[in-house]
């Protein structure tokens, strides 16, 4: 059965883009605070062993990641509602993940016994409940429009909001904890405030956007076995693999960054907030001029430049580990890399959705979004585990002066490993991703022709 396609003049207006932006901004604190502060909260506030927490991160994230393709399959096959294929389920998922989020942080603290058991259960459930929110949200760009310029605009908005949201909480959270101290009460303010933001922005997002693009054939549902074909398609596989390595690098760094400012720079958490703001000096120009880079280098070339900056940025700090000016330069370079990567990531993902429909005749936004979620969680879990294992192996002891070996472990987590792993991601994408700009145009035109042919049969 055929379906309608977006009219050529059916542009996405400012209000819809603003609602889309707020929804993506509101998704950031859930995982960014977990990545940046959960290890510290569990070790220094709850009193859990860092190696035990590292194992928790690794096992729970990998097990949770196995759930992602199943959740993507379920969401792609759920009935359409009045709000479309994705927005109703995004709203339901938001309520569930907010309840789970509170338990993730405070369940182990409130428990009188079995703190690790509570941590394992809530950490595993956070991935499942977050999927119900995140997969529909990450499926919106391919269904909001099939226009290349609009997709690039939405991808840039999504990337900017992800980065700006990350910056807001990267600056605000350390300031809050610096003023209130590393106490349970401070985390109450941080986490319950976060939950309020997530709920409010999701409601605005759901109410404000439209779903325009539907499958060419509504009855052509893919099977779960098709996921193997989808993920092994060369553009999809290389994108996921490069994203996985980049995610590992970011997770190692973000998980360990607070340790660097506490134990290497002598409790200068105020500088942590300043460095996060300075990333904007690289990030905003990268986002603003990414369109010009795409015109000259293409999406692939621009994405590669972003990965290069993300890799070289931390490594220059080896010239002088405690140099604050060099730290600022490093953050500006990493901000530029992050700006390019996040701006292009979701537009490339939308192109991959079209590639799958072009090759296999089946629309699978939820499947690819769920696989992207798996990659993100695997990267976060592996990166968090690596950070915890390095701390444990080098002799980190909570809340006291660290040995030279422990300081070296912190430096490895914040500087050396993120830089090297980001460069590996760059090499993977250079040699693995083969969709050119002309190929994107060919795929888009072919899919539009198929939709028009299907609509003519109705």
Describe this structure as you would to a colleague.
This protein is mostly helical. The chain has a single domain (14-209, 222-457), classed as Growth Hormone, Chain: A. It is 81% helix and 0% strand. The chain has 15 helices and no strands. The longest helix has 37 residues, at 324-360. It is globular, with a radius of gyration of 22 Å. The termini are close together. The relative contact order is 0.17. Mean pLDDT is 85; it is low at 1-9.
Keywords:
single chain, 458 residues, mainly alpha, Growth Hormone, Chain: A, 15 helices, 81% helix, 0% strand, globular, disordered N terminus
Proportion of strand residues: under 5%
CATH topology: Growth Hormone, Chain: A
Characterize the main sheet.
none
Tally of separate domains: 1
What layout of secondary structure does this protein have?
Blueprint: H1 14-46, H2 50-77, H3 87-110, H4 115-138, H5 140-144, H6 148-180, H7 184-208, H8 226-232, H9 234-264, H10 269-288, H11 290-315, H12 324-360, H13 365-393, H14 404-432, H15 437-457
Helix pairs in contact: 1-3, 1-6, 1-7, 1-9, 2-4, 2-13, 3-4, 3-7, 4-13, 6-7, 6-10, 6-12, 9-13, 9-14, 10-12, 11-12, 11-14, 12-15, 13-14
């Amino acid at each position: 059965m055929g379906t309608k396609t977006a009219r050529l003049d059916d542009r996405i207006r400012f209000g819809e883009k603003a609602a889309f932006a707020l929804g993506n901004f509101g998704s950031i604190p859930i995982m960014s605070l977990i990545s940046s502060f959960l290890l510290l909260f569990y070790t220094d506030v709850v009193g859990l062993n860092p190696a035990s927490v590292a194992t928790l991160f690794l096992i729970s994230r990998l097990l949770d990641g196995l759930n992602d393709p199943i959740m993507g399959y379920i969401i792609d096959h759920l009935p359409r509602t009045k709000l479309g294929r994705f927005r109703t389920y995004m709203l339901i998922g938001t309520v569930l993940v907010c309840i789970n989020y509170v338990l993730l942080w405070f369940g182990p603290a409130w428990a009188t016994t079995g703190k690790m058991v509570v941590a394992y259960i809530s950490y595993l459930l956070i991935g499942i409940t977050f999927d119900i929110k995140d997969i529909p949200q990450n499926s919106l760009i391919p269904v909001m429009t099939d226009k290349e310029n609009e997709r690039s605009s939405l991808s840039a908005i999504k990337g900017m909001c992800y980065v700006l949201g990350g910056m807001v909480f990267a600056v605000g959270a350390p300031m809050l904890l610096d003023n209130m101290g590393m106490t349970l009460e401070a985390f109450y303010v941080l986490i319950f405030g976060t939950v309020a933001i997530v709920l409010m922005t999701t409601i605005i997002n759901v109410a404000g956007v439209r779903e325009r693009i539907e499958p060419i054939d509504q009855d052509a549902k893919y099977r779960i076995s098709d996921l193997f074909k989808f993920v092994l398609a060369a553009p999809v596989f290389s994108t996921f693999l490069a994203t996985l390595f980049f995610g590992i690098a970011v997770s190692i760094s973000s998980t360990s960054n607070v340790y660097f400012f506490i134990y290497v720079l002598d409790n200068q958490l105020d500088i942590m907030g300043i460095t996060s703001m300075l990333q904007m000096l690289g990030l905003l120009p990268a986002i603003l001029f990414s369109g010009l880079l795409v015109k000259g280098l293409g999406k692939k070339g621009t994405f590669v430049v972003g990965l290069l900056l993300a890799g070289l940025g931390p490594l220059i700090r080896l010239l002088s580990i405690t140099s604050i000016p060099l730290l600022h330069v490093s953050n500006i370079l990493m901000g530029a890399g992050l700006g390019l990567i996040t701006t292009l990531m979701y537009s490339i993902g939308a192109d991959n959705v079209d590639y799958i429909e072009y090759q296999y005749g089946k629309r699978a936004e939820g499947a690819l979004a769920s696989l992207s979620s798996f990659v993100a969680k695997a990267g976060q879990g592996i990166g968090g585990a690596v950070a915890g294992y390095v701390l444990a192996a080098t002799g980190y002891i909570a809340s006291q002066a660290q040995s030279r070996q422990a300081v070296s472990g912190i430096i490895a987590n914040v500087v050396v490993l993120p830089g090297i792993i980001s460069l590996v991601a760059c090499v993977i994408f250079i040699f693995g991703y083969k969709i050119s700009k002309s190929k994107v145009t060919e795929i888009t035109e072919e899919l539009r022709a198929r939709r028009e042919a299907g609509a003519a049969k109705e």
